[in-house]
Amino acid sequence: MPHPLILSRFISSFLLSLSLLSAFLQTVVGKVKISDFAMDPCPFLRILVGNLALKSPSLLPSKSEFSLVHPSSSPFFCKIKLGSFPSQFATVPLIPPEAHTPDDVVSFTLTRKDIEKLGEKGIFSSKEPRLQILVYTGRRGSSCGFSAGKLLGRVTVGLDLKGAAAGRACVFHNGWVSVGGESTQLHLSVRAEPDPRFVFRFGDEPECSPQVFQIQGNLPQPVFTCKFSFRNSGDRCLRSRSSLSETSTSRSWFSSKDDDSKERKGWSITIHDLSGCPVATASMTTPFVPSPGSGRVKRSNPGAWLILRPGDGTWKPWGKLEAWREPDGLGHRFELLPDATGGGAVTLASSSLSTKKGGKFTIDSRGFVMSSTVGGEGRCSTPEVEVGVKHVTCTEDAAAFVALAAAMDLSMDACKLFSQKLRKELRRQRSEEFVV
């Protein structure tokens, strides 16, 4: 039996070691690589159609006329169809035979289920999926339900997706093919590239502080938690990482009246890993304020979010999301900030989404970066986020995209007409607790 004094010293030493180990893990937990977690990407496949061009002696104008024709104003366009996917359109430039063809212009993204569905054999379809390219002359559009363009011809390309589904890049076609007569030829390239992505899904609406699950097949696995809160106007936007994790000390904020009908400000959502360590945050830095006489946030004065990542013991700006209300849509613009690029700010996305139906917020800059679903007004929205594998090397990378997705989804509410009331989770209460 060990002497009580020796045993006591041993226990004290052991407990001190555990304390030091815990402190060390808390320090490095945010820097653990994704590969050290059980985070496997989902298989995705991109069908890329590009290098479109048309040449024909009978259609080609004279050299003097050709010099005045810009490819974007070409009188030819094509409609590209793949299974039940929405048709896509692209301009087809008319070029001299010796000219180079342009780059990729259209892409379809396929999940494993999409690949299986395309490969199903139906009564009126072949087993091999096919891509159809219909070439038209004239302006794109419709009149009385009919296409305004005149069909010049069509091309069908078979897609053998077995190799691509196994993770190999495949080229299905690259070159010229006759269309609308032997003298008229269409140049195109059709290829498939594996595009694995991490998929995350919010367990509830962001303002309800839900868990975030990683999706692999049909098995959701919790990887993050969210905390939605209101920042006081006196709080500093950039606070130390440790101060955000100290939830034991707080102070009460009191408002004499509800100011949500005048402006929407101070919204914040913080992403934590499963150990409780904050790994990303989205903070509303510019209030969403209605323009005088309009009752809506206009593009000339958008609201803005700052997406922040931890670094050197504090929060560092990573991206900026601006949003505003258009007559029938949610306008938005996302910039990657200098600290993240090493240079000036870079605009990666600028578009709009339907306020009625919602849609997908997408960053596709020289290849897929990320996408997230956004619910329409009045709809329950649990964003699903896809992030390209090559853009995720650590926990903070994934968390930053999740925070961005949350900010984009919350912007739909922030840009709601000011004549309409927000749900209770988004309204400041008369007494609200704030983390200091």
Please explain how this structure is put together.
- With 436 residues, this protein is of the alpha+beta class.
- Helices cover 16% and strands 41% of the residues.
- It has 7 helices and 24 strands.
- The strands form 5 sheets. Strands 20-19-18-17-16-15-13-12-11-23-22-21 form a 12-stranded antiparallel sheet. A 4-stranded antiparallel sheet has the order 4-1-10-9. A 4-stranded antiparallel sheet has the order 3-2-5-8, with no helix packed on it.
- A hairpin with a 5-residue loop joins β2 and β3.
- The longest helix is centred in the N-terminal third of the chain and has 25 residues.
What's the helix and strand layout?
Layout: H1 4-28, E1 44-55, H2 63-66, E2 76-82, E3 88-91, E4 104-111, H3 112-118, E5 130-137, E6 142-143, E7 146-147, E8 150-158, H4 162-165, E9 170-178, E10 185-194, E11 197-202, E12 211-216, E13 219-230, H5 241-245, E14 250-254, E15 267-273, E16 278-286, E17 303-311, E18 314-326, E19 329-336, H6 338-341, E20 346-354, E21 359-364, E22 368-374, E23 384-388, H7 395-414, E24 431-435
